[in-house]
């Protein structure tokens, strides 16, 4: 890793920071590096360790407040509504920013976080774009916007915002290989699979521990249903990314997906038990929670007996029943309360979401609750109660709107699978026909998928019995 940048180094890079403390500048770089690489580096003291030292080095350093608050808001899925300390931390940041001369870029960073905290995610992205237009190597603006586009399901923007600055990320710019990884992910989500894989491999040639570039290749193999290639790649590279504490669980989730695809459920459960469940236990992070729910729910749809595994997931998910920060996360919390048959938690999640959806104010996510979030949650409940007709009636009309809940194409595929399983379990000929239509569509978009072939065989068998 390049030496951490002091005041002069940031100034020379055209990204001057308003602090006289070289220590604060270096710690800002240390936090940024760990965020960009998805890895808490113990040699640096981890992100949390660096943030507290950063605060001590210069309590009035506005960009220090920006990176701390931004990571809390964007990285952990917290919100001002849920976390009063975060609310006051944001106020402190804003007050500080008004009490000292800042660069235009720094002022825009404060504004973007203010927008994000108000739930105005698209407007926050506009502000980060404004920064990037004049400061293409501002990695914090690039990554915050990248993550926010991901939450919004704005796949094209996620790709193009990196494309616009990509030529400036020449090899001598610190962390430039990781920007190849960001770009490759946007390309992959917009189906430029070959270019995405090429760039991810270039990034891995520079730094093989880049877990995000490994992740792009895992997606390429997933989207193309290249199951054997996918399995071999994860096995070959495991030692390089397994210590990426922020992403390893998710990469293991991708690994287990190939086994679900193949119908090798025991192998998927082994990865779940050895890597996915324990990582949630140690991190408690939202991404790890989503991966746990998502893996168990897919196995549940396939009819696999899961024992008491949902109970452990629910222990973590319960804390987020009333979050409603991202509807995508809500749906995954709900999967765990349904899986663990905890009616009280299920009711609590739905009623609190309904309540907030009545008056979403300027909150972008909550404004999607009545049209997308709630019907999706209700469909999950109806399916669990055996009301498959109702589940289809709720889910089918919104299937092209689900992208607005964000997440990756691979993650949202769980909702497509749910719709197909619900339609397959319906008695009416019309819904059976719908299941077959959806399966034909799936087969064309993702040929040679063993799961699709299994479901097509099942649909044909149901038809012949009827
Ligand atoms: Fe992924």
Automatic annotation (TrEMBL):
Keywords: Repeat, TPR repeat. InterPro entries: TPR-like_helical_dom_sf, TTC38. Belongs to the TTC38 family. This is Tetratricopeptide repeat protein 38. It comes from Gallus gallus (Chicken). The gene is TTC38L.
